[in-house]
Amino acid sequence: MKCPYCGNPDSKVIDSRSAENGQVIRRRRECKGCRRRFTTFERFEQFPVTVIKRNGDREPYKREKIRIGLGKAFEKRPVTSQQIEDLTSEIEAELREEGKKEINASAIGMAVLRKLKEIDEVAYLRFASVYKDFKDISEFQSELGQLLEKKEDG
To answer: Which of left, alpha, beta for 56 (phi over 0: left; psi -120 to 50: alpha)?
Structure first.
């Protein structure tokens, strides 16, 4: 692993631990050249899935897109970056279990919405407003009304 500070390709592992519900190995390393320490993460190779977008375009699956969307939804909410990373892993694992080579972007969006609804209603509404492309306040009110109805029923 190349040192991010000096570029030396030689480093030693100081500590390894499991992260993200066992889906990732976090390693602390020390550069043998400059002696500075840095962290690396080892995770499953991204599964080779093609995402079919709404307009029919196809693109490779990118984990980062889910993480960024969740980050925006949880902005200024009481959620840590580690929780966002864990949630991203959960959603990705759910998608991987389907075993498909192609997946619609809408299926990814719905998986994110399901998780957000369980965790944080404000984050859910933020994500839904972008994902469902609300045109005006009445669409937002309708979604909020459905959320409130389910809360009263449950």
So the answer is: left
CA angle (66 as vertex; 28, 83 as ends), nearest 5: 50
pTM of the model: 0.64
Q: Domain total for the chain? A: 2
Q: In terms of domains, do 80 and 109 share one?
A: yes
DSSP 136: S
Q: What is the mean pLDDT of the chain?
A: 88
Report the distance separating Cα 100 and Cα 7, nearest Å.
39
Q: How open is the CA angle 114-116-117, to the nearest 5 degrees?
A: 65
The secondary element (H helix, E strand) that includes residue 72 is helix 63-73
Residues 79/96, Cβ–Cβ less than 8 Å: no
Question: Which tokens is 70 given?
Answer: 């969740």
Whole-angstrom Cα distance, residue 33 to residue 42? 22
